[in-house]
User: What shape does this take?
Amino acid sequence: MSLKRKMKSGNVTVGSWITLGHPAIAEIMANAGFDWLTVDMEHSAITLHQAQQLIQVIELCGVAPLVRVGENSENLIKRVMDAGAHGVIIPMVNTREDAIKAVSSVKYPPAGKRGVGLARAQGYGLEFERYRQWVSADSVVIVQIEHINAVNNMESILAVDGVDGFLVGPYDLSGSMGRPGEFDHPDVIAALERVLEIARLHNNVVPGFHVIPPEFEELRVKIQEGYKLIGFSLDIMFLGKKCNNEMTRIAEWIK
Assistant: This one.
């Protein structure tokens, strides 16, 4: 079953972020049981060439590869989709117009404005018709709600045809309110409550949240709140947290 169909079925899907551009990272994480993995090209040094390699590994492991592009750019979105991404995550979608641009960059005419190229996604030129049908039915567009302006415009953003889901970026959202990382501040709490209120009115769009700490309890809280598209931490946090925890235990034991 495609990721889009899983999302639309109402099931919770759990994915994670890849910021290290080595295929072994993608293989290790893909074999861990995630539903999807996102190659992050916004906050990493990953190149397009590396992104295609990571996409190949993730897909061959039976996991849906997504790409978080660095900006809402028609050219960037087209290129990662041509490389074989099953969908994109678009940062800083703050208006209805931003959402329309994201969708149209993924979809071919008449639904969108994406230019036609023959690359890996299209079977290197041999499977364009199959891919054209797949893009129409199963490609995924996820917008990031990570600015207070996005919260204020969220109803019109989610009303755009072709937006499949959204992900709350908690750090940037709180930062846009002058409260970076202050998730217990009343204003930040109120903004997150508003996000869920609006999401309930648009049940055709899957609500999502990027849980940064690699902690099960944090993930469980967000699922209980109603989020169904869970970005669970990222590669460097899993690695760093485990290293720090175990070395702290060792240091305490040696003392």
Q: What stands out?
A: The mean pLDDT is 97.
